[in-house]
Specification:
By secondary structure, the protein is of the alpha+beta class. About 25% of the residues lie in helices and about 35% in strands. It has 2 domains: about 150 residues, 2,3-Dihydroxybiphenyl 1,2-Dioxygenase, domain 1 (Roll), CATH 3.10.180; about 200 residues, 2,3-Dihydroxybiphenyl 1,2-Dioxygenase, domain 1, CATH 3.10.180.10. The mean pLDDT is about 90.
């Protein structure tokens, strides 16, 4: 049997479009512990934009900024602020994948293109996803360079090592989209019909509601189960939900958070805090109730409480997780750090405490 031409090997990279990639690279390096491994810009012969490639474990982020006002994507910065522009997916054959998804109703943004330099060739093609977010199919089997044509390894000594600590993030666990009210099922259907994903789980407003805000969420995953995309939409609550706040400040649907795995969340979060990353906090009472709720775990609860790490358990095991505050002035993009011990779920038992913590932040912003 011939396998699906849209079978995805992995998330190749996540591309952020930002106002000042040079400074964002400094933040993701010093606070989140990424290595800056590649650069594209005027010095490498790229005239219209600058790009920085950041790597940690199997995670690759690319930060891109326009160099001139007439860059075709410049309006993104006014509309969205900094944010995720593209989630690039590695496939075996870019042209076949692109043809297949177009025949299944995807909207093309850029047809298959070969990029070539002395290190080989990569092939790319891009389709629309929610809002202004895109998916690029990429194949780099015949490419040996640092990232892509136009990018060069960063000159040694470009950054001297500072006082920040290494962090130990390993891979992307899931990437969450916020879409408009009533649009969640449309996008779930897109991932099922176009990319061959299946629906893993759903949460409705009975699972996810507090006094003020409610949301609905469905999780789609690829055939291997390695790529998971939860999709949220606002549900009717008494006041403005965190999803509505995101949609307002981002100016439409987009990536809400990226969850990254670690083998030692206590070490990772301690290092990130040392590096000045701010995390959401839950009240101490959360930890008083914890032993009864999740049963025995390997970690010391006092240590978890000290760092604000949350715990949840399901049929398959338990997981530890924590969320940063938004990493920009707009209350939009944030990150999650997650350590899984058997559990493959998303921390449903933490939703209430978490959303109350988010609402306390919303209240400070006057957006509740
Ligand atoms: Fe998450």
């Amino acid at each position: 049997m011939q396998h699906d031409p849209v079978a995805i090997r992995r998330i190749d990279h996540v591309k952020f479009f930002v106002g000042n990639a040079r400074q964002s690279a400094y933040f993701y390096r010093n606070a989140f512990g990424f290595d800056v491994i590649g650069y594209a810009g005027l010095e490498t012969g790229v005239k219209h934009e600058a790009g920085y490639v950041l790597r940690q474990g199997k995670i690759t982020f690319v930060l891109t900024s326009p160099l001139r006002p007439d860059h075709p994507e410049s309006r993104r910065l006014v509309q969205h602020g900094d944010g995720v522009m593209d989630i690039a997916l590695e496939v075996e054959d870019v042209s076949r994948a692109y043809e297949a998804v177009l025949s299944r109703g995807a909207v093309g943004v850029a047809p298959p293109t070969m990029l070539q330099d002395e290190h080989g060739v990569i092939e790319l093609a891009t389709i629309k996803a929610y809002g202004d977010t895109t998916h690029t199919f990429i194949n780099r089997d015949r490419y040996k360079g640092v990232f892509a044509p136009g990018y060069k390894p960063l000159a040694p000594g470009r950054y001297s090592r500072g006082s920040f600590r290494s962090v130990g993030l390993m891979s992307i666990d899931h990437i969450v989209a916020n879409v408009e009210e009533g649009k969640m099922d449309e996008w779930v259907d897109f991932y099922k019909r176009v990319l061959g994903f299946s629906q893993l789980i759903h949460f409705d407003d009975r699972d996810i509601s507090t006094e003020y805000s409610a949301l609905m969420s469905k999780v789609v995953q690829d055939g291997t189960g390695r790529i998971k995309f939860p999709i949220n939409e606002p549900a009717k609550g008494r006041r403005r939900s965190q999803i509505e706040e995101f949609l307002e400040f981002y100016g439409g649907p987009g990536v809400q958070h990226i969850a990254m795995t670690t083998k030692d969340i206590i070490q990772t979060v301690a290092a990130m805090r040392h590096n000045d990353v701010s995390f959401l906090r839950v009240p101490r009472t959360y930890y008083d109730a914890l032993p009864e709720r999740v049963g025995p775990i390997n970690e010391d609860i006092n240590e978890l409480a000290e760092l604000g790490i949350l715990v949840d358990r399901d049929d398959e095991g338990y997981m530890l997780q924590i969320f940063t505050k938004p990493v920009e002035d707009r209350p939009t993009l944030f990150f999650e750090v997650i350590e899984r011990h058997g559990s493959r779920s998303f921390g449903k038992g933490n939703f209430k405490a978490l959303f109350e913590a988010i609402e306390r932040e919303q209240a400070l912003r006057g957006t509740l």
